[in-house]
Known about the structure:
The chain is 56% helix and 0% strand. Helix 2 (35-52) crosses helix 3. It has helices spanning 20-29, 35-52, 54-63, 68-78.
Amino acid sequence: xxxxxxxxxxxxxxxxxxxxxxxxxxxxxxxxxxxxxxxxxxxxxxxxxxxxxxxxxxxxxxxxxxxxxxxxxxxxxxxxxxxxxxxx
Length: 88
């Protein structure tokens, strides 16, 4: 738990606007008790990318060239350690 000056036990929150359709999908697909457990690691891993290469990470997401779906599909295709090296 993060402590904020003068507010012990304060828990930071992020509020974002989404379309009504995305909110409905979110409500229908992600159980209420699992939402923070799922979204927090996504945010943390994205922030790691931004720290490593801000222009690439932000540009790729804003242009639609990098999505969680792309990352997961690539992982399923290539396994957890990326593409296999070709053997000689």
